[in-house]
Amino acid sequence: MVTESTAASLLLVGSGYVDATGAGWTCTAAAAVTCTLADGLAMGASTTVQVRVDVLPAAYPSVGNTASVATPAEDSDSTSNTSTDTGTVVPLVDLALTKRLANAADGRATWTIRVVNHGPNAADLPFTVVDELPHSATGKVAKGRLRAREASALTPGEQRR
């Protein structure tokens, strides 16, 4: 039986430590999360530690984590003591849309639609604006500068009309 085991997980850029838990584990966090199982682990037994982090905007487009385990006992195969897992991070965006009647004269109405990305990541393409015309509007195709400017992602703070 191993008398004490320590598992460490590096905290990567783009993540903020929340907590680490596991039955019998004592965990602390600084530049890495370090968890110690003082009771030991019998041959063939297993135990689990869960490390939770907030995925921050800097992690986009993917986040990875490497964990390792060490023991004061002699380890007959240390090649299996480290594991890395990587996952895709969905970008975080906060799109806002405003619409105002810019002109209503000579039997024609013009609305200005403004889209702004408050971030923290770019709004990848395609993003779509749907404007349901009033029932009283007649069959002209809507024209606007928004579609012509969709050639690039909408970066945080950027506005399009």
Please give a structural write-up.
The protein is mainly β and 161 residues long. A hairpin with a 2-residue loop joins strand 8 and strand 9 (108-117). The protein has 2 domains: 5-88, no CATH class; 95-160, no CATH class. The protein contains 1 helix and 10 strands. It is rod-shaped, with a radius of gyration of 27 Å.
How is the topology of this model organized?
Layout: E1 5-10, E2 15-21, E3 25-29, E4 32-37, E5 50-55, E6 62-70, E7 82-88, E8 95-105, E9 108-117, H1 145-148, E10 159-160
Antiparallel strand pairs: 1-4, 1-6, 2-5, 3-4, 6-7, 8-9, 9-10
Helix content: under 10%
Major sheet description: 5 strands, antiparallel
> Reading side by side through the largest sheet, how are the strands ordered?
3-4-1-6-7
What percentage of the residues does DSSP assign to strands (E)?
35-45%
| Mean pLDDT across residues | 79
DSSP, total strands: 10
Properties at a glance:
single chain, 161 residues, mainly beta, 2 domains, 43% strand, rod-shaped
Structure summary:
The chain is mainly beta.
